[in-house]
Specification:
Helix content is about 35%, strand content about 25%. It is α+β, with helices and mostly antiparallel strands. The strands form 5 sheets. It has a 7-stranded mixed beta sheet. Strands 23-25-22-26-24-27-28 form a 7-stranded mixed beta sheet. Strands 1-2-3-6-4-5 form a 6-stranded mixed beta sheet. Strand 12 (about 365-370) and strand 13 (about 370-375) form a beta hairpin. It is globular, with a radius of gyration of 27 Å. Pathway: Purine metabolism; IMP biosynthesis via de novo pathway; 5-amino-1-(5-phospho-D-ribosyl)imidazole from N(2)-formyl-N(1)-(5-phospho-D-ribosyl)glycinamide: step 1/2.
Amino acid sequence: MSLLDTVDHAAATPDHELPYGELGLKDDEFERICTILGRRPTACELAMYSVMWSEHCSYKSSKTHLRQFGVKTTDAMREKLLVGIGENAGVVDIGDGWAVTFKVESHNHPSYIEPHQGAATGVGGIVRDILAMGARPVAVMDSLRFGALDHPDTARVVPGVVAGVGGYGNCLGLPNVGGEVIFDPVYQGNPLVNALCVGTMRHEDIHLANATGEGNLVVLFGSRTGGDGIGGVSVLASETFDEGGPSKRPAVQVGDPFAEKLLIECCLELFHAGVVAGIQDLGGAGLSCATSELASAGDGGMAVRLDTVPLRDSSLRPEEVLMSESQERMMAVVEPQHLDAFMAITGKWEVEATVIGEVTGTGRLQITWHGETVVDVPPRTVAHEGPVYVRPWARPADMDVLQADPAEALPRPTTGEELRGQVLQLAGSANLCSRAWITDQYDRYVLGNTAMAMPDDAGVVRVDEESGLGVAVSLDANGRFAHLDPRVGAQLALAESYRNVATAGAVPLAVTDCLNFGSPEDPGVMWQFSEAVTGLADACVELGVPVTGGNVSFYNQTGHEPIHPTPVVGVLGVLDDVARRTPSGWALPGQQIFLLGTTREELSGSEWAWEVHGHLGGLPPVVDLEHEKVLASVLVNASRDGLIDAAHDLSEGGLSQALVEGCLRRGVGARVWLGELCERDGIDVATALFSESAGRVVVAVPREEEVRFTDMCTARGIAHLRIGVTDGVEADGEEAVLDVSADAPLFTVPLSELRAVHTRTLPEVFGS
């Protein structure tokens, strides 16, 4: 459009055609915008509504289901909740005047198109969400899912994503303390990159973002606005990929972690100096989001002079400036008397800052371009009152066939030689092999407050250096379980994350989630989503942990093939003293290995079924949330009382993988006997090794604490059984082994052989 499309011009040209369909708006949505404004929108208004009403920004297909999280949150669950759903991130009270904020978000589609920048800017965006709450970011985690390990395109995507996650976080000086990496053909054309950040603050430092106080100034600061990321994630994440890739190809944002590091320190000093009324990050939808959300959350309106926005590209049209998702930008509301102090601080950190507008009493968001009004809208209609759909949902017709094909019917190994071979096969498989090739590219200990990190079950970070107060965080999901039963699958993801935090010795406090699904326009996908959200909300009530916030990512599919429903669940717990945290691998010989929980014949959806037989069908394991609560209390109290030296949850790969990882963590072998377990639980040896029954943990107990520990388990009604003893230390020069027997010897594997199998898989694919 050669002429500037002003509000007056829009009113005078009602029949002028606008490309709303190309921007993702439906006919009825465009008509609704015209009704709200009483005229057609200008090009700039259309840009704002299109990105803010996109699926990624508006949650228009998920809102009706997500309300369950708020409705089902009880007063008891709110006891530690300082800030809940609806803000940049949730905040929980961890005691002694300290608060922690954490959140997980997706950057899936951009990471497929530009793996390095897509992943890097995903980390940058979630860090700024935490920063906007007034918190200092202290750690990051990530949940990554890729296509088949041997697929040619996986070799393109994985190194770029890993370099993006590691490079951005490392440059920010934030430790990456955990997460997960999964390979599965279902994610081939649509990898999942979910990033989590944790931040800490004192209670009095919590800040909420809104534009209040008529006459207060609106200041944009950070990097200049460019053409990268115009419509970026907001458009990309709101449609599926066709077989040839996305039909809309906006430029993926380009990140500069060094600029973000300056922005972090600058923001924290601005908060500390008390010179800002509120700060909002510019993430998805850029200026469209920041201006409309700040104005909508405030008590007045906002006037913005868009032509004063500092640009990297002077050729950008005003609608492009509004849609750009250029990174490392923040927006602040500043009282006029604090402006000089604000500018002095941004100048000190060499962060460019520009006053671009002010808070008004009009109740409207009005934006000008060189004196001409190009936007005049009620801000709530842009930011908070977009369309809400109750999408039709229906249980897919093939669910009965899928669930009627259980892995329990598959042939199982019976001889010691067969069992040994499959233990090694799983240990070196794509999803269970060592992640060191990936995690060694991340700095896990920068800042000096990491008390525990991958490959332990949870990341542990010290918050208060004097008392040792800290937090543990875990991030988990199982798309195969959720595919077999979305409701149970979501609950199993929560239970695993909850259990991982407890194995570290932390009391679980709160939940964040990233719900990754296919197209909401598919009734089968919406059924999966509805089931998963309901299951997760109900489970949170039973466990007593509130959802503090998170993200929904729809349209994760290529053509008509959606990904498995993948609800990624993060749980945060608190430790009174991180010195008492419990690692996942045994460190000393002569300790008693106990299995807590009961093993059932539950092989469907397991890594054994997939890796050995290429099979997916049946029903996922049963979830018993009351048992999970009691088990967590045993683990936390045993950790506090020094009754256990190691604890490792049983999940993917079952007992077999837990024993492998327990031995390899510190090079200490184990002698394990399964006869009594098989007799007690009525199972065969293969089931004992490969079942993925939930609610189970292996622990290493010092011999002198065995009586106290078993008394605690008995008193709380937790099934427990001594199944082995730690034995042999590689560091002492001896040949440590994993030795497994039942009623008779079954097999022995030297740890050197286990380690070789476990560690070679990823380097062989991606290079050393």
